[in-house]
User: Fold this.
Amino acid sequence: MEITITEKGNHALMTVSGRIDAITAPALDARFAEYHESVRTRPEKMPVVLDLSQAEYISSAGLRSVLKMAKTCNAEKNRFLICGIRPPVYEVFRISGFVSILTIANTREDALAML
Assistant:
């Protein structure tokens, strides 16, 4: 799994590629926590767009990580959007009920338009 976080204008783009499972989810948690800690004292909010267009698989551990990110952002009244979910990964989100509790856009451009 590869994780990149870049700030682009008024938002942070977090891109995750590969498998998000019990082995890799702790690294995702740690990377998000590290980023969040570095920006949480800023006066302006920095919405987070999680791009999963390169994620091949997500397990329940990965879903837990995504939910944790969303809760962290929501607790600080910050936007958290997910975009680019491939059909097999989207199916896991759908079955788990996450599509009704998280903001999901088809493409990165759609997500940015929602900010």
